[in-house]
Amino acid sequence: MKLAISATPVVANFAPILFQGDIEEAFAKGAEYGYEGIELHLREAHDIDWDKTLETTRQYSLPVMAIGTGAGARMDGLTFTDADITVREKALQRIEEHMKLAKLLDASIIIGSMNGNIAGNQNAKKYHLECLKKCCQLASGANVTVLIEPLNRYESDWLNTVDETLEIIEKVNSNNLKYLADTFHMNIEEASIIDSLKKAGEKLGYVHLVDSNRQIPGNGHLLFDKILRTLIDINFDGPISFECLPVPDRETASVSAIEYIKKLMSLLQMDK
After folding, report:
1. Which residues pair with 204 in a beta bridge?
2. Beta strands in the chain (DSSP E)
3. How distant, in Å, are the alpha carbons of 6, 142, 156, 208, 263 from that of 216?
4. Block means of pLDDT (10 residues each) for the chain, length 272 residues?
């Protein structure tokens, strides 16, 4: 399991992203703090210089693990469930550009907010499935993994649980579609985070470790020793990132997050 710092070139203090600002600085600081990867959040794929970013990953030996696409939904209203076909097509076009960048950087693509809402639209789930299948077809051609992330009920009116997510993964039936588990959302929606992770099993492709208050692990009440033990027990070896609020500031949060989790992982290895 490799630990990744979340980063975005957009400064938005309300966003649960640790490093907000200059991306090259995010790589430099991530390497300094001991991270093994970057989770990059972009509104549009060309918000950054592709060639320069690739060069930066090599310079710091810090790969981009995944590209977050939620800003396209939150800022531009692009989702896979919109009743307007032109909006859905624009959403797919946006993802296709992200996909090209993901192929270049050997990264995965996260689909969270772009899953959209379904209230008042009886065809929403059908639209979503059609878009997600097209998305996975594009990803397959680019050899990119798609990570579908369920959100909590206060951010999405459907697709909130691991059961719903696994059902969609089964319907899409694509080897490159995996489940992204976010412990903040799971703490709201799942009866048991542990049981849900076990249920996901080999379908689990990526994990966001976030505490109950959306801050870094250790700042809330979630039991991350048990969560990490479960990930070890199910043989999860994918990326782990911290999609957390930068509280009290980005440096303190970034350093404290990795130190806390590395300490827990070390203790768990000693217990084996």
Report:
1. 179
2. 3-8, 19-20, 37-41, 64-68, 108-111, 146-148, 177-182, 204-208, 240-242
3. 11, 33, 22, 10, 14
4. 93 81 94 96 94 96 96 93 97 96 96 95 96 94 94 96 97 96 98 97 97 96 96 95 94 96 86 58
Provide the H-helix boundaries in 17-123: 23-33, 50-59, 71-76, 85-105
**What contacts 45, CB < 8 A, 6 or more positions away?**
67, 94, 97, 98, 100, 101
Cα–Cα distance measured from residue 267 to residue 142, given in angstroms and rounded to the nearest whole number = 39
- Coil/strand/helix, residue 174: coil
8-state DSSP, 45:
G
Please report the pLDDT score of residue 141 as a whole number.
87
Architecture label for domain 3-271: Alpha-Beta Barrel (3.20)
- Orientation of helix 124-142 relative to helix 162-172, angle to 10°: 60
| Pairing outcome for strands 3-8 and 37-41 | parallel
Query: Burial, 141: exposed, middle or buried (Cβ in 10 Å; 0-12, 13-18, 19+)?
Result: exposed
- What's the pTM value of the predicted model, to 2 decimals? 0.94
Q: How many residues does the chain have?
A: 272
Domain edges within the chain: 3-271
**Alpha carbon of residue 157 to chain centroid:** 19
DSSP 178: E
Residues taking part in catalysis: 149, 243
